[in-house]
Amino acid sequence: MSYIRFFFLIYIVLFNSGCIKKEDRGVTPPKERIVYVNRQPVNCATTIHTPTPTPLIIEDRQHINSNRPMINRPRFNSGFDINSISSPYLGGAYANNYQLKQFIEEMVSKHGFRRDYLYGVFSTVNRDTLSLKKYNVYGKSHKKQKANSVGSWDRYPKFVTADRVVNGVRFWRANRYYLEKAAYIYHVAPEYIVGIIGVETNFGRDTGKHRLLDALTSLSLEYKKRSKFFRKELEEYLLLTREQRLNPLVIRGSYGGAFGIVQFMPDSFRTYAVDFDGDGVKNLFDPADAIGSTANFFVKKGKWNPNIPVAMRVLYNKKRFNILPTGYKTEYSQSYLKSLGMRPTSNFYGYRGPVSLIKLSKYDRDELWWGTKNFYAIARYNPRDYYIMSVHLLAQAVRKSYYRR
Fold first, then answer.
1. Once rounded to an integer, what is the mean pLDDT over residues 177-186?
2. Which of 118, 123, 231, 346 is the most exposed place for a label (fewest CB within 10 A)?
3. CB 131 within 8 A of CB 230
4. What is the pLDDT of residue 57?
5. Residue 138: per-residue pLDDT
6. What is the CATH number of the domain that holds 343?
7. What are phi and psi of 117, to 5 degrees?
8. What whole-number distance in Å separates Cα of residue 221 and Cα of residue 231?
9. What DSSP designation does 41 have?
10. Is residue 333 part of a domain?
11. What is the mean pLDDT of the chain?
């Protein structure tokens, strides 16, 4: 009995001195929530599957809010005083234009703008001859190549270049936080947001040099074929600058009136732009807001479906294909297209639904692709097959380089 007491006393001394430690079984490390970048949750609200899963670790929304990157991002000059612009009469390039005067009166009666404010704004307008030339309204007309003419895909501007892929990977790395957040909230694959931004502005390197007020005013008054469209965009532009307290005289963008690194038109801005970084400003020159706004656009206007792929190339045994109509609006069953001799190049990630038939006309042959409803979703951004395919191919190239596969 004395031996037992002796060993017990020795144990107590060693334990208190730290030589013997009790095994820590108290807390089990929290399980990581794996967010994959291309599919909607299957088993829980935090798991999104992609055909070739490359996990992005997002533990929860608290993780998102607590790890915001501390980066100085470009901002709109928000806080503009609308009372700083005023004129008792209308000047500028269109001072004597009846349509502009009518538009101003409509903005006063319909939206409550001050007449002297609008006189002041439009008195600064210069005729945007470059925008008018782009739409063949002014100067020598330029013939556009016909869609699907032989070699048209070879002549189309190339967006999948080594430099642009490198820029895309850099953009993804610099903005991974917000791309993961968009995947978590909207279930939109990051590579397609990256693809849009890459095709539109080469990741913010070319957002346009036209003053939006000049371009939209010139086109709404002189481009008769689409005057209604551009008049509406001019109206939306004035409304968004008032709502966001922006100076309407300084914002620059494309010759068609789009702006920001994702090139939203004013109506798309008012409908789909979001303040994704929570700084109180919707700024499409800021990558954070541009990423969130693009994802929101894909979901709300494009009806993006995270459970299906976008496109797949198919093989065809003849050089030219003229049997059926082609384009993103077409719809055929896969079995029917197979009966015509088309052979899929993969299992299409298990997708068996209807597809559109896309033809890319090259000099040596026609290249055929199948597109899903997500291909159509990209078309809501720009309704041209070659544009949509450029976004898809750039997205896949950047994704492959990003994950080094």
1. 97
2. 346
3. no
4. 33
5. 81
6. 1.10.530.10
7. -65, -45
8. 8
9. B
10. yes
11. 84
**β-pairing verdict for 343-344 and 311-315:** antiparallel
| 333 within 8 A of 342, measured Cβ to Cβ | no
Average pLDDT over residues 265-276: 97
CA distance 340 to 357: 12
Confirm whether 394 is domain-assigned: yes
Give the pLDDT confidence score for residue 119 in this predicted structure: 97
Which stretches does DSSP call E strand in 345-391? Answer: 355-361, 366-371
79: left (phi over 0), alpha (psi -120 to 50) or beta: left
Q: How confident is the model at residue 8 (pLDDT cuts 50, 70, 90)?
A: low
Q: Considering the entire predicted model, what is its pTM?
A: 0.80
Mean pLDDT (whole number) for 208-222: 97
Tokens 């992005």 correspond to 56
Residue 95 covered by a domain: no
Q: Helix-strand-coil percent breakdown of the chain, rounded to 5?
A: 45, 10, 45
CB 118 within 8 A of CB 104: yes
311 — phi, psi (to 5°)?
-155, 155
Beta-carbon contacts of 276 under 8 Å, excluding residues fewer than 6 positions away, are: 178, 181, 182, 288, 289, 291, 292, 293
Residue 181 lies in a domain: yes
Cα separation, 121 vs 213, in Å, equals 9
Q: Return all residues near 159 (Cβ < 8 A) that are at least 6 apart.
A: 198, 199, 390, 391, 393, 394
CB 257 within 8 A of CB 230: yes
Q: Which residues are catalytic?
A: 200
Output the pLDDT for position 149.
85
At 272-292, the pLDDT tens digits run 999 999 998 999 999 999 999
Residue 21 has pLDDT above 60, yes or no: no
pLDDT for the residue numbered 50: 35
Identify the H or E element spanning 253. Answer: strand 252-253
For the chain, the residue count is 405
Name the DSSP class of 19. S
For the chain, the domain total comes to 1
Confidence of residue 45 (pLDDT cuts 50, 70, 90): very low
Are the beta carbons of 291 and 276 closer than 8 angstroms?
Answer: yes
